[in-house]
Amino acid sequence: MQMDPGLAGTVVGIALGTAIVPFLDLIGYLLRMNVFKSTGKSLFGDEQFDFCGNPAFKFVLFFSVRTIDEALGVELCKKLQEICVKKGINNFELHLRDSASGQQRWNKDYFAEKLGSTTVKRVYIASVAGTEASFAQQMREVGVPDDVITIL
């Protein structure tokens, strides 16, 4: 997954289960950056936060897991969301789905509701074999241009 360091606008990630892995570096980066923004202290010394530092950047993650208790990365995502809400930082939004609890399956209407009139700059899809094309189609159906959709 490659992004322009000065990217402004909304980037969408869609991950199913362990397919969250390609997004974990970005999530960890946003977590460290938001801790720095809210406390003035870096978690790792002299870290530079020039990537995704544009105030107009936002990462919207749709993350579906079989069970929340057993999923990789859930706590990291939840902690980042918590910091964003508490500190009024608007660079991350989490939509977590626990399929074992019978939550609504994602479809075009769900994505349309959650994204609203947001202009999406990039979409990255990481899922299990066979579902990527369906998610790409749903993104196209809510108005996301095909040339900004990447299947990882």
What labels would you give this structure?
4 helices, five-stranded parallel beta sheet, alpha/beta, 152 residues, 34% helix
In short:
The protein has 152 residues and is α/β, with parallel strands linked by helices. The protein is built from four helices and five strands; from the N terminus they run βαβαβαβαβ.
How would you describe this structure to a colleague?
The chain is α/β, with parallel strands linked by helices and 152 residues long. It has one domain: Nucleotide-binding domain of ferredoxin-NADP reductase (FNR) module (Rossmann fold, 3-Layer(aba) Sandwich), CATH 3.40.50. It has helices spanning 21-39, 74-87, 108-115, 132-141, and strands spanning 9-16, 57-65, 92-98, 120-126, 149-151. Helix 4 links the parallel strand 4 and strand 5. The protein is globular. The N and C termini lie close together (7 Å). The relative contact order is 0.22. The model has no long low-confidence stretch (mean pLDDT 86).
